[in-house]
C-alpha cells in the first residue's frame, strides 16, 4: 500500500479533486533510480518525470562520484522532490525499484545508516511541503527510463578524469 498524505481534503472543484484511485486529478509522476558500480563505486541517479497522463515533463540525472547504491537512490528521490517543489507542483507520485528506500520513507523500516538518515530527513521535510505524496515500489523492469538515465550519469562520470558531481536536466 503506497504511503500517501494529504493536508487538505479534496473538493470536486479543486486542483486536487481525487480520481477513483484517490490520486489528485493533476499530479507529477517521478520514476526514480539510483545505482553504484561496485557499491560503493561510481554512482548516479536518474529521474524520469511525467504528468499524470504519462506525457514526458523532464529527465534528470547526476553523477555522484563514489557512493553506495542506497545513497544514489535517495539522491534521486531528493531530485524528484526538488523538481516538483521548484516547478510549483504540490502533488507527486514517486515510483522506485528500491524497496529499502520506499519502506524507509513509508516508515516500515528504520534508517540505520547515518549518511542515509540525513538524506531521509531532507526527503521527509520536502514531502511535508507537498499537499499530496505517494511512493511505491516496482520491479526494475517497470523502471527502465529512470534506470537508463542513472546509467547515463554513471557512464558520463566514469569517462571523465575527475569525479565531481555532474547534474544534467532535460525537459521533454
What's the CATH first level?
Alpha Beta
SS-based class: alpha/beta
Instruction: Indicate the multimeric state.
Output: single chain
Taken as a percent bin, the fraction of beta residues is: 25-35%
And the CATH topology?
Nucleotidyltransferase, domain 5
Query: CATH homologous superfamily - what is it?
Result: Ribonuclease H-like superfamily/Ribonuclease H
- Spatial gap, N to C terminus: 30 Å
CATH architecture: 2-Layer Sandwich
Largest sheet: 7 strands, mixed
Note the overall shape.
Answer: globular
Order of helices and strands: EEEEHEHHEHE
Q: Fraction of residues in helices? A: 25-40%
Order of strands across the main sheet: 1-6-5-2-3-4-7
Q: Report the total helices.
A: 4
Mean pLDDT: 86
- DSSP strand count: 7
> How many structural domains can be distinguished in the coordinates?
1
| Radius of gyration using CA atoms only | 16 Å
* Low-confidence regions: 1-18
Structural overview:
This protein has four helices and seven strands. It is α/β, with parallel strands linked by helices. Strand 3 and strand 4 (56-67) form a beta hairpin. The chain starts with a strand and ends with a strand.
Amino acid at each position: 500500500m503506497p504511503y500517501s498524505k494529504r493536508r487538505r481534503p479534496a473538493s470536486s472543484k479543486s486542483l486536487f479533486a481525487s480520481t477513483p484511485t484517490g490520486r489528485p486529478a493533476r499530479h507529477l509522476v517521478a520514476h526514480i533510480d539510483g545505482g553504484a558500480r561496485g557499491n560503493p563505486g561510481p554512482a548516479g541517479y536518474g529521474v524520469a518525470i511525467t504528468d499524470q497522463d504519462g506525457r514526458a515533463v523532464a529527465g534528470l540525472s547526476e553523477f555522484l562520484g563514489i557512493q553506495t547504491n542506497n545513497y544514489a537512490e535517495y539522491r534521486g528521490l531528493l531530485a524528484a522532490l526538488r523538481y516538483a517543489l521548484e516547478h510549483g507542483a504540490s502533488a507527486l507520485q514517486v515510483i522506485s525499484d528500491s524497496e529499502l528506500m520506499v519502506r524507509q520513507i513509508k516508515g516500515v523500516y528504520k534508517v540505520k545508516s547515518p549518511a542515509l538518515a540525513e538524506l531521509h530527513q531532507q526527503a521527509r521535510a520536502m514531502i511535508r511541503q507537498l499537499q499530496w505524496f505517494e511512493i511505491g515500489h516496482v520491479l526494475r523492469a517497470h523502471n527502465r527510463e529512470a534506470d537508463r538515465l542513472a546509467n547515463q550519469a554513471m557512464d558520463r562520470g566514469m569517462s571523465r578524469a575527475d569525479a565531481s558531481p555532474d547534474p544534467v536536466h532535460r525537459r521533454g
